[in-house]
C-alpha cells in the first residue's frame, strides 16, 4: 500500500526543477545544502510540540520539489535518548550532515505526551520505536519506512551505514526519476 502524508490536507505541489548533479559539481555537498536552504528551517532542527506538522510538511515538500530533493521525516522527541544521540551524531559528522541536507529536506515530527501528532501520523505506516525515518518523494508519496536501529553498529550510529542509506535513496531518485527502487535499502 502506498502511503502519502500530503493527501491528508489536500496540498498542491510544485514540480521538480533543480539539477542536483550540476550543483554538486559546482558547489560540492556542503554548498548545495547552503544554496538550497540557507539556514535550516526550524522544523529541521528541533522537535517542537507546538509546531504544526501539516504546515511544516507542506513547506518541506515545496522546498524538496523546488530543490529536487526528497523529504526525510524524523519522528521522535526531545525525551528520547536515541533521538538526541542521533541529533549529536548528525551535527558532529560532517559527511552525514552534508549528505543528508544535500539530498533531503529534514522534517522533524514531535511525538511526546504534550503532543503526539496523532492526526499527522495516522497517514503513515506504524512505527515501533523512535527515532524513526520515513522517506517521502516531493509529491508526498511515502517511499520507505526505516527504524534507525538499522543504522547502529555496536550501539553507536554508523557513518558508513547512514551515508549508504542516504545515498541509496538519493541515487535511486536520480536513476529512477522517483520510482521505487528494485534493490533493498541498506
Description:
With 186 residues, the protein is of the alpha+beta class. It has a domain at 20-75 and 85-131 and 158-176: Glutaredoxin (3-Layer(aba) Sandwich). It is 41% helix and 17% strand. It has helices at 20-37, 53-67, 81-92, 94-103, 118-121, 159-176, and strands spanning 3-4, 70-76, 104-110, 132-136, 141-147, 152-153, 156-157. Helix 4 runs parallel beside helix 6 (159-176). The longest helix is centred in the N-terminal third of the chain and has 18 residues, at 20-37. The protein starts with a strand and ends in a 10-residue tail after the last helix.
Essential attributes:
five-stranded mixed sheet; alpha+beta; single chain; 186 residues; 17% strand; globular; Glutaredoxin
What order do the helices and strands come in, and which of them pair?
Elements: E1 3-4, H1 20-37, H2 53-67, E2 70-76, H3 81-92, H4 94-103, E3 104-110, H5 118-121, E4 132-136, E5 141-147, E6 152-153, E7 156-157, H6 159-176
Parallel strand pairs: 2-3
Antiparallel strand pairs: 1-5, 2-4, 4-5, 6-7
Amino acid at each position: 500500500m502506498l502511503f502519502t502524508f500530503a493527501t491528508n490536507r489536500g496540498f498542491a505541489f510544485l514540480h521538480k526543477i533543480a539539477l542536483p548533479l550540476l550543483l554538486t559539481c559546482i558547489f560540492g555537498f556542503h554548498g548545495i545544502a547552503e544554496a538550497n536552504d540557507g539556514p535550516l528551517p526550524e522544523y529541521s532542527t528541533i522537535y517542537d510540540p507546538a509546531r504544526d506538522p501539516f504546515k511544516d510538511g507542506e513547506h518541506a515538500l515545496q522546498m524538496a520539489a523546488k530543490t529536487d530533493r526528497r523529504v526525510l521525516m524524523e519522528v521522535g522527541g526531545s525525551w528520547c535518548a536515541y533521538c538526541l544521540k542521533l541529533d549529536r551524531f548528525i551535527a558532529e559528522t560532517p559527511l552525514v550532515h552534508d549528505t543528508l541536507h544535500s539530498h533531503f529536506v529534514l522534517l522533524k515530527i514531535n511525538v511526546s505526551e504534550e503532543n503526539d501528532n496523532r492526526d499527522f501520523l495516522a497517514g503513515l505506516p506504524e512505527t515501533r520505536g523512535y527515532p524513526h525515518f520515513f522517506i517521502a518523494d516531493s509529491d508526498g508519496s511515502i517511499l520507505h519506512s526505516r527504524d534507525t536501529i538499522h543504522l547502529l553498529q555496536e550501539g553507536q550510529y554508523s557513518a558508513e551505514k547512514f551515508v549508504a542509506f542516504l545515498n541509496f535513496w538519493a541515487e535511486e531518485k536520480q536513476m529512477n526519476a522517483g520510482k521505487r527502487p528494485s534493490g533493498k535499502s541498506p
